[in-house]
Write a structure and sequence with these properties.
It is a single chain. The protein has helices spanning 3-32, 37-59. With 66 residues, the chain is mostly helical. It has one domain (13-59). α1 runs antiparallel to α2.
Length: 66
């Protein structure tokens, strides 16, 4: 597996994990009365950056020289 493909695969798992953690925290915050606005916003930004990098890497792939 090429190095860039391995990085993209890891990035996909990291983004998905961040989104699952954020959903879990948002659900528990409502039940337990937590104020996690800043934490949730930070997770959303990190996941957004990862998603942007991941998708633009797919959209604008460069041809490798042989």
């Amino acid at each position: 597996m090429k190095k860039i493909e391995k990085i993209k695969k890891i990035a996909k798992y990291v983004v998905n994990t961040l989104n699952m953690i954020n959903m879990l925290l948002l659900g528990l915050a409502e039940i337990w009365g937590w104020n996690i606005d800043k934490i949730s916003a930070t997770i959303i930004v990190l996941a957004g950056i990862g998603s942007t990098w991941f998708t633009t890497g797919k959209l604008f792939e460069t041809k490798e020289e042989k």
